[in-house]
């Protein structure tokens, strides 16, 4: 009887602590995005915040993975494949124009290998993880779920592209964002989303949807303010 009461007490205290931890992380995410909007829209501050862009992306990924529970071989394989396929497609795109179109990266996103920032691989990993989590329980068919996840990523890219060009993340030939970019983005995203679906690891994450919404609002507001 004493053991049961002790276990119940521990559980009752751990549950509020867990939710407090989630709320704290959500507040941190929102504050960082709000500060980022301020920094990017004030011309005097913009150069400093452009330099901080890689750290912002890495911070968001780190905070997200604090709540990831499926640390198994399949998850590590997903990390490697999503990073590798996403990054590889960008290297191919920069050097050949396929599958996205003709573009080049600026210096803002940090260290580059084969003229592509390594951070771009992290970006692919993060966006697939966030958008895939939306549908992983709601839709049973892997191909439909992968298509919807890829579509969410394309819609987010529609918000990202104009901001990225203005902030010198990358630039397009003739300053025009081609339709091929969004078609190629969907195709690569679909492949990685399908891998995400097929690999068996715990895909539930309490921060995923909240972080995705924050990212969408962040780029939406920057589209309006820049």
Automatic annotation (TrEMBL):
Leader sequence residues: none
InterPro entries: CruF-like
Pfam families: Caroten_synth
Domain of life: Bacteria
Transmembrane spans: 24-42, 48-67, 74-98, 110-131, 143-164, 176-195, 207-225
Keywords recorded for this protein, A-Z: Membrane, Transmembrane, Transmembrane helix
Identification of the protein by name: Putative membrane protein
């Amino acid at each position: 009887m004493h053991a049961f009461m002790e276990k119940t007490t521990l559980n009752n205290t751990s549950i509020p602590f867990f939710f407090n931890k989630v709320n704290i992380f959500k507040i941190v995410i929102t504050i960082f995005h709000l500060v980022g909007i301020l920094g990017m829209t004030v011309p005097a501050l913009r150069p400093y915040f452009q330099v901080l862009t890689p750290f912002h992306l890495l911070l968001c990924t780190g905070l997200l993975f604090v709540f990831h529970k499926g640390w198994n071989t399949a998850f590590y394989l997903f990390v490697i494949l999503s990073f590798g396929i996403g990054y590889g497609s960008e290297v191919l795109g920069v050097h050949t124009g396929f599958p996205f179109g003709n573009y080049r990266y600026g210096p803002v996103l940090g260290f580059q290998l084969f003229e592509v920032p390594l951070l771009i691989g992290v970006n692919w990993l993060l966006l697939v993880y966030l958008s895939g989590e939306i549908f992983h329980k709601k839709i049973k068919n892997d191909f439909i779920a992968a298509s919807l996840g890829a579509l969410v990523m394309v819609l987010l890219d529609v918000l990202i592209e104009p901001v990225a060009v203005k902030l010198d993340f990358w630039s397009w030939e003739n300053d025009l964002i081609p339709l091929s970019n969004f078609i190629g983005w969907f195709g690569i995203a679909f492949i990685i989303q399908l891998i995400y679906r097929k690999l068996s690891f715990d895909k539930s994450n309490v921060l995923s949807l909240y972080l995705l919404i924050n990212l969408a609002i962040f780029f939406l507001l920057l589209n309006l303010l820049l």
